[in-house]
Specification:
Blueprint (H helix, E strand, L loop, with lengths): L9 H9 L7 E5 L5 H8 L3 E6 L2 H13 L5 E4 L11 E7 L10 H11 E12 L13 H8 L3 E7 L11 E8 L2
Parallel strand pairs: 1-2, 1-4, 2-3, 4-5
Antiparallel strand pairs: 5-7, 6-7
Length: about 180
């Protein structure tokens, strides 16, 4: 699995360390893979939930979370199409937007709105590459802002620390859903 990096997104780790004041609520991580990012949220005191299409990813997530001594829940789900089990305080994604077919990006925005509470936070690490023959599929800051800004308020953006092969190619955007 080329997307399996063996650790949570470095930008997420830094974000959580830099914001110990955040109220600890629920967080959904769609496309959670083997659960590294979910465990980072759980370790920071959030009620963390991971969702993925692959049964093997969910099984590995459950096993690794138990070994780590953390509590989180993992379920099979199609983020783009399934109803949300409930609305979350936080939604975190790391390169899921670029992994789906570009024609599904409107459905992705609709899913964010379906899964996130009004006033909730959407933290995304987007992979800004020009590729059109993915996955991953290219995107730009301009495309992401155009798609999300009608529904979400951009609170902060930065170039996060990344895995070695992605340095300078990721953009972290912290959004808040309009009420």
């Amino acid at each position: 699995m080329p997307w399996e990096k063996g650790a949570p997104a470095p930008g997420l780790v830094d974000f959580l360390a830099a914001h110990p004041e955040l109220p600890r609520g629920t967080v959904s991580v769609p496309g959670c893979g083997t659960g590294h990012d979910v465990r980072a949220w759980a370790g920071a005191g959030f009620r963390a939930y991971g969702y993925d299409l692959a049964p093997s990813a969910i099984q590995l997530s459950v096993e690794r979370t138990k070994v780590a001594g953390l509590r989180a829940q993992f379920r099979l789900a199609d983020f783009l199409r399934d109803p949300a089990p409930f609305r979350f305080d936080w939604l975190f994604e790391h390169t899921l937007f670029c992994a789906i077919q570009p024609v599904e990006r409107d459905a992705y925005v609709e899913a964010v709105l379906r899964w996130l509470k009004p006033g909730g936070n959407y933290l995304a690490i987007n992979y800004l590459i020009p590729d059109t023959d993915g996955p991953p599929f290219g995107t730009t800051r301009e495309e992401v802002v155009k798609r999300f800004s009608p529904h979400l308020k951009l609170l902060k953006e930065c170039t996060p620390p990344s895995y070695p092969n992605r340095e300078g190619l990721e953009l972290m955007l912290w959004w808040q859903r309009r009420s």
